[in-house]
């Protein structure tokens, strides 16, 4: 299994990136709070799970499957792979244009 396959399964086709300290401050996120920007959302097949749930490029993930502490994409991927199961529905909390939104998607 490739890292992209694992990422697709756990993140629903999203690619994430760390926020810069100033971006975190501008969004009102504390240093210990999760804040990962969505830099890519898959568009086809199993890679489109997050997109179908309404996630967009530019959204900032602040919670996923109850994980809210500040981790990078790799650590979040590892935690989700260990703490969730394939087929499990997870809640995602995100910031879009300064407003909090919630959505759910099923892990592949």
Automatic annotation (TrEMBL):
Transmembrane segments: none
Protein name listed in UniProt: PDZ domain-containing protein
InterPro entries: PDZ, PDZ_sf
Residue ranges of domain PDZ in the record: 50-104
Gene3D superfamilies noted in UniProt: 2.30.42.10
Superkingdom classification of source: Bacteria
Source species of the chain: Blastopirellula marina
Lineage of the species this protein comes from: Bacteria, Pseudomonadati, Planctomycetota, Planctomycetia, Pirellulales
A Pfam family hit: PDZ_2
């Amino acid at each position: 299994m490739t890292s992209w396959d694992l990422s697709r399964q756990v993140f629903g086709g999203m690619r994430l990136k760390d926020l810069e300290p100033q971006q975190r401050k501008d969004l009102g996120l504390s240093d210990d709070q999760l804040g990962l920007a969505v830099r890519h959302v898959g568009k086809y097949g199993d890679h489109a799970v997050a997109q179908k749930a309404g996630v967009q490029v530019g959204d900032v993930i602040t919670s996923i499957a109850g994980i809210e502490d500040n981790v990078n994409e790799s650590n979040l991927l590892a935690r989700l792979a260990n703490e969730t199961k394939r087929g499990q529905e997870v809640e995602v909390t995100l910031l879009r244009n300064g407003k909090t939104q919630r959505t759910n998607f099923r892990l592949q």
